[in-house]
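We modelled the chain as a single entity of 280 amino acids. Its sequence is:
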Amino acid sequence: MEEEFIMTEENIKKNLFEVLNNTRSLTISTVCEDGSPWGTPLGWWAFDGKNIVFDNHSGTVHANNLARNGRCFITIFNRDLGYSRGVYIDTFAKKLTGDDCEQAKKLIEDRGLQVTDDIFSAPIGEIDEAKSKMYERPDKTRFYCYLRAENKNRHCLTSDTFYRVSIKAVIENEKGEVLMAKEDGEWGPVGGGFDHADETVHECLAREMEEEANITNDFTEEFWKTKKHFVKHKDGDFWKIDMLYKVKIIGELKYSSGEDIDGVKFLPWSMWRKEGGELL
């Protein structure tokens, strides 16, 4: 008869860190280009307190998978610490450079392992206490810990599979110029990412116009056209599709730069330059 323990945060972390600091090998699961899963055992790795760092041999299947899409699942299992312990991490990996890479190499080499190729890092994220359990019976004790790392750059999906959807407000003046906001050194129509599950198109336009240009007027919108383009990003390239809506402002239009915007003004369409962009 197994008895399940109520795991405290302290107890979970104690078991977790013992596994991460005393286990020789792990298995990393990635996704191939055709969508099929791929699992790879790895022995050249270390734990830096927050991240799994590992030697990633270029040209291998899992290395190619991570280069295309950093999403991965790491499994670590240990039976040499008195009882069975498993750690399961839903995470994402990225290549390290500079000082971060050198520090990670040293950690791996300190474990007596020779580093031969690129070094990648994957955060362990936060513990899912609801899934993390410990069982005990007369002949066996088992510990399972689940963790998940949120990818803050989750718009960087597999470049050849997904589109990042953005909603743009086309607000024109009598000269045919469009109200544009300058963000990250680039001018473009006011607008941004569409939170599909949490808002309507009208709500998205209202939120973006207020955030970027401090516009709080009532308005009406009408779908106009879409624009697609390929975006090169330091955390992964991706396709983006902009949905353009002709917006009619009700009342006097007043606008100013939002908190993270470097300027807002009416400009000709030619100021909106996107690499590979085309109107559909």
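As a brief sanity check on the tokenised model: The chain is about 15% helix and 40% strand. The longest strand covers residues 219-231.
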